[in-house]
Design a protein that fits this description.
globular; 8 strands; Spore Coat Polysaccharide Biosynthesis Protein SpsA, Chain A; 237 residues; disordered N terminus; alpha/beta; 9 helices
Length: 237
């Protein structure tokens, strides 16, 4: 059998967007509208961590798959992935916006069979110099380590995601822990296409305070400190 026939053409790769939410009523309608503009038939799964489904109440599009799962990004994203039917899983935060060519960029990247996943280059929705510098640092850190953060819109081949067991059910840093395993499985790309993510947490909790917590927790993680320990050290992160 010709091996080339077993490789799915990139243009036909189906992408499923999995979005974990928690009280995202303000952001969700705008994000869903933007996603439908990218691709009309795009599969979108919104997974609410609130047992009352508070965020789901602002979804009026019947094509959007609405789910409820135990609170926690790992739990919610795993629940959405189990219901997804696409060849590629794209994990998107509700306050992150994709560029107009994002889906085509994913398909083009995955045209290389050795590429198993990746993410985008981040920018924040604030013009302040601090956020421009922070985005630049995040982007270069991801390119060097090939371990992106969750707000960079991580995408993974669906088959590999389940082969690796999905997101580890840790209380924190689930994106880092998963991407370490993905990186060992194949090529991870950080696309030059930008995603815009909200600076609301930094603005709400203070730039210096939030920045210090993130820097300290990531540094400790590199030295092997476990997520449960980090959560005890930084309970409000």
């Amino acid at each position: 059998m010709d091996e080339r026939r077993t490789v799915t053409r990139p243009a036909s790769l189906r992408i499923s967007v999995v979005m974990p939410v928690w009280q995202e009523q303000a952001f969700l309608p705008r994000v869903l509208e933007a996603l439908h503009k990218l691709e009309q038939e795009l599969e979108i799964l919104v997974v609410d961590g609130d047992p009352t489904g508070s965020s789901l109440q602002v979804i009026y599009d019947p094509s959007v798959v609405q789910l409820i799962a135990p609170k926690g990004r790992a739990s919610q994203m795993n629940a959405g992935a189990r219901q997804a039917t696409g060849d590629v899983l794209l994990f998107l935060h509700a306050d992150t916006t994709l560029s107009s060519g994002a889906l085509d960029a994913i398909r083009a990247a995955l045209a290389e069979p050795k590429t198993v996943g990746g993410a985008f280059s981040p920018i924040f929705d604030s013009p302040k110099a601090f956020f421009r510098l922070l985005a630049w640092c995040h982007g270069w850190r991801a390119r060097i380590t090939r371990i992106p953060y969750g707000d960079q819109a991580i995408f993974i081949r669906r088959e590999l995601f389940f082969l690796l067991g999905g997101y580890p059910t840790e209380p924190w840093l689930e994106d880092i822990l998963l991407m370490r395993r993905v990186r060992r499985a194949g090529k991870v790309v950080i696309l030059p296409d930008r995603v815009i993510t909200s600076a609301r947490r930094f603005q709400g909790e203070g730039i210096l305070h939030t920045g210090w917590r993130y820097a300290a927790s990531m540094t400790l993680s590199l030295f092997g400190v476990q997520p449960k320990t980090l959560r005890r050290l930084f309970p409000d992160a």
